TrEMBL record:
Residues 19-227 form the Glucosamine/galactosamine-6-phosphate isomerase domain. Catalyzes the reversible isomerization-deamination of glucosamine 6-phosphate (GlcN6P) to form fructose 6-phosphate (Fru6P) and ammonium ion. The gene is nagB. Its EC number is 3.5.99.6. GO terms for molecular function: glucosamine-6-phosphate deaminase activity; identical protein binding. This is Glucosamine-6-phosphate deaminase. InterPro entries: Glc/Gal-6P_isomerase, Glucosamine6P_isomerase, Glucosamine6P_isomerase_CS, NagB/RpiA_transferase-like.
Amino acid sequence: MKWIEAASYGEMSKIAADLFIDHIQKDSKSVIGLATGGTPEGFYKELVKSYEAGEISFSETTTFNLDEYVGITEESEASYHHYMKKHLFHYIDIKPENIHLPNGSAPDLEKAAKEYESKIKEAGGIDVQLLGIGINGHIGFNEPGSSFEQETHIVELTASTREANKIYFERLEDVPTHAITIGIQTIMQAKKIVLLISGASKQEAYDRLRTGQVTEQFPASVLHLHGDVTVIYTGVS
Ligand code: F6R
C-alpha cells in the first residue's frame, strides 16, 4: 500500500485526479470505478477542470459506480445517479451508454445485481477504482461483517452509515435502509485502487487501516491484500 499525505483537501483531490487523468490519457478506453459522497467532490471538480482545459477526453471511457440506494428514484436529488450528473457527467463528453450505476429501483434487485456484475466483467473489469471510506470502515456499501468473497449484492445499511448520510436527506427516516453495492471481491479485482481519506471524522478508520490487520469486521482492511493500492489522505494523522 502506498500512502500519500496531502497538505489539504484540494491537494488530495488534485493528486487523485491526476492519477486518473494520467491513466485515461494513456488509455482512452479505460474502465473507471467511481465513488460518491463528500470526499470525492473536489476530485470531480479537478476532472471537470481538466476536461474544460482540453487536457482530457472521456469520449471512450467507461465508468461503473460503486453503489446506489434502494428505493429512491434515479431522479431523486439524493440518488447517486443524480450526484454523478451534478458533479461530473453533466460537464464532460462521456457517452451516456458508457455510464453505469447499479439500479436501486429495479423490480428484481437480485437480478439487477447479477446483471451489473456481468456488465463489469464484459467491460473487462475495472482498471482504476476510486474509493472513499466509511467511519466504520465500509468501502462501497460493504458494511462491517461483509464477506470478502461477495460480488454485486443488496445490503442493509448500518445505523452509523444512515446517520452519516442523513445530511443528504430531510430526515433520518428518509435515508434508505438498503443499497445495492459492488462487492469486495469485485473491488479487489480492480487492477489499481485509489482510496481517499479526508477529515477528522475518519481518524479512527485511518488508524485502524494503518494497523494492517485484515478482518471482515473492518472491510477496508482487505485492501492490504491488493497489490496496487494508493491511499491519499488529509486531515488525519
Ligand atoms: C460512496 C461509497 C461510500 C463512501 C463512504 C464515505 O459511493 O461507496 O463507501 O465512499 O461512505 O463517504 P463520504 O465521502 O461522504 O465520507
